[in-house]
Every structure is written in C-alpha cells, then in structure tokens.
Amino acid sequence: MNPSNIFAEKIALPLGDLFMKQSVASSLKFLMLSQWWSKDQLVNYQNLKLKELVKHAYRNVPYYKDLFYKNDISPDEIKCKEDLKKIPILTKEIIRKNIKSGDLIAKNIRNNKLVHASSSGSTGEPLKYYTTNYAYGFNLACAIRAWYWMGYQLGDRYVKISQYDRSKTKQIQDFLNNSKYLPAKELNEEYFKLIVKSINSYKPKIIRGYPDQMLFLSNYIKANNLDVYTPHALTTTGSTLRKSTRDRIESVFGVPIYDAYRCEGGANVSQCENRESFHSSVEYAITEITSKGKEVNYGEKGYLITTDLQNLAVPFIRYDTQDIVTKGTEECSCGRNLMTISKIDGRDSDFLITPSGKFLIDVQFDGWFPEVASVDQYQIYQKYRDLIIIRLVVNEIFDKKEENRILSYWQKYIGLDTKVEIEILKDIPLTKSGKRRYLIRDKSIILPF
Ligand SMILES: [Zn+2]
Cα–Cα–Cα angle for 3, 7, 13, nearest 5°? Predict the structure, then answer.
C-alpha cells in the first residue's frame, strides 16, 4: 500500500461518506470479509436480510400488502430463496405504475431520505425509482470490491470513459479518489485523440468504459498506429461484451478485460481475478435464474430475477430484469462461495451508421432519454442510411415545443447528412422473445466490419 492508497482508504473515502451521508467505507470493509464466508454463512445472511425485507415491505409498502393479500401469502412464510417463488414477479410496468401512484414507496421513509435513481445500461425502458443513501453506498462498495479483484486499490489512478458530465461534487470526489472521467460524448476523432492523450499522461491503473466505446477507441488507436499507455487492467459494463469486441480491445491495450453487469434491482455481477465466470454480490441481492418460472440447472440459460436486499425505499422483490444469463457451476477456483454466472447472454447494443461513417450506439441515447420527463418509451429506427426515425411514446406533458427540442438536439447530434424524424406511437411492441430493442438498423444498411 502506498501513501495514496492509505489516504484514499483511511481519509478520502470516510470523509466522502460523511459528506454524502453514505457508508461506502464500512460496507466495503464488511464485503472484503464476507467474500470469504462459507456458503452457509452467506445463505444465513441472505435469509436474515430477506425476512427483514419482506416484513418491511408488507408493513410499509401498499403494493406488497395488497399483493400478499391477493395471493394469500403471509410474510412469515418467506424465509429463504426457495420461498420467494410464492411471490409474483415484479415487472418494469408494475414499478412504473406504482411509483407514479406512490404505492411502491415505503411509507416509513421520509421524502427527504429518498434518493433518485434511474435505470442505466442498455436494458429496460427509462425507469425512475428511489433508493436510500445506505443502499446506494452498499451497491457502490460491491462494485469497488470487484475492482479489487482485478488488482485495483482505492487511491490507484482510475480512468472512466464516460458519456456524462460530472457534477462539481463528483469532481471533488474524483480528485480525492485519484479518478478521472474522460468524456466520449461522440465517437469521433476529436474525442478519441483527447482520450488517448489523457491516458498517456495520467497513466491509470484501471480503465473503465462501455464495450462499444472501448471498441471504437481501440479501432481508432489501431487504425492510426498510436502508442497507448498499458494499464494494469480494463473493465467494461453497460452492454454485452461480445467476444470479437473483447479480443480487439485486449489486443490493442495488451491487458485483460474484467467484465461486469449491473442493473436496477440490485444485480451487481463481476468477473473475479480468474475470469472463469462472474460472481453475483449475494450480500446485496438474491439472484434467481429462471426459465418458464423454474430455476435452471448449471450451464443453462434463464432470465435473471433479482431481489434487492438493501433498498428499503422501493423494495424490488423478484424483479424481472429481462436479461438472459447462463448459470455458472457451483464453485469457482478463486475459493469464493459467491454465486457464479458463466455468461451474460442477453444484452446487445446495436449500431447505427450515418452516410459520413459516424457510428451511433445505444448508450448515447440511453444517457439522454431517461432524463426527458415527457417521454415514456423510445426506439431509434434507421430506415435508410440517411434517415433516422425517433419513435416515441409520450405522456401528457409532451407538446410541440418538446418535440422541436428533441428533434433539434438529435438532428445536431447525428449530423446534417442524415434526416431525423419523430414518430409518435401508442406503444412500442416488444420482440417475440419479449425484449425491447432501442436501436434498430434496417438490414439493407451494412456495417463496414
Ligand atoms: Zn471466482
């Protein structure tokens, strides 16, 4: 441990917690120990948290009180993961409706203690809900623990290639934590040049980004035969890491990628140092992997259903993420008894390409539309190479002014060589497999790779 690690762990993180009213430091300390617990210890901890959660939800959350009553479930019956099967699945649609009515928000938590949260990554429609400072910090600590698995320690230099601007408070935190956020608002030479220059001067231990951003950055580095600093490791999250993408990025940077999967409802899944499979943070959430309502066997694919054990503000009990994963074998050679997932199958960002060769990926839209209050659903359809249609399902606060604002933002963003149109729909149907596609490129438009 060098002085910057000691400063980050002993001073910066606890101070940050105090300032943000979080408890990342104590949660991380707990998680660094619990990762080596026996299977029984982990199951006992989950059962304890589950019983507390179910009792809390029944007492304080109208949606669950009603659900349990209608399905003749007593909260005392739910004692372990297997008992969860008695509780009907929670969907995004149910959450949206019951957040609006207030029925999914715990009545015993004061409004000023609710922390806004929103779905991210390529899964799900824009979904707004609430969490608590404690749950937010615990979830963040699970992510930090996974960074330790790839050789990172708090205080090490860390770069995130980001779609978003950082708030002033976050910038202070970044400075104290030795982390740097590099914007890649557009996937073009201007941004890539700056990113490579910053990486080379900052010399980070870890670089983190969305797979598609990292892919385009790697292609740019390779095409221009640039020298790029070799970090200790790379980490990706936000969409499925295709094999071809992994191979290309790893060959350009010369180090391994540790992939991770996160989603609303508490699933916090990361590859350990062995990179054989992913571990689910079982202290944060219970993960079920089901097909036709039944838990699948090892090596089989199923839907990831998650129960958030820490967020008491809006309890996610048996939330269907609509993501498909493959259940891992019972044991990982790293020795941890945290549940394993061998593959994240379900999420796949699509690409659009404009006449000038500019690529558009899912995260660019996903970083914008969830913040637009007048839009409930969106889908981007590229009909011709020079025509992109933004399909929207809107609500009562949408008007002509909003339409013009959305249109002019995206016309400017996408470029004048492409006509951008808005189409208002009553609903955007799901695919046959029940997934929502955010980006659709007509089959006639061929990508150059
Ligand atoms: Zn492992």
Answer: 150
